[in-house]
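Worked Example 4.2. Consider the chain below.
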Amino acid sequence: QVQLVESGGGLVQAGGSLRLSCAASGRALSRYAMGWFRQAPGKEREFVAAINWSGGSTYYADSVKGRFTISRDIARSTVYLQMNSLKPEDTAVYYCAADLTTAQNMGIIDYYGINYWGKGTLVTVSS
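Applying the procedure from the previous section yields the following structure tokens:
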């Protein structure tokens, strides 16, 4: 079992930055990939970024490459999503996710195949 708690969402103007955090707890986290997904109103949940807990390899959606950075702090069991140059289309509820897979695979598989989710944190980007 893995428990995930997100924080750091809020309201920001276009072009601004936010950092989301995901505190993870559970056994054998080193076997997991950790990721961020988002869901805008009326849209399907979509992959944003993922990282292998062990080794730190990362994988990004094309829409956020060069603007978002995923990282992890092993000592704090926390995954971060640094979001820069935010756009109104980045507005969504952002969910932290975890599964026994790789970062790249997390970006490929259907989101409903992911086993562990946080409750989400809202990010609103105003124009």
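The longest strand covers residues 18-26. The chain has a mean pLDDT of 96. Compare this with Example 4.1 before moving on.
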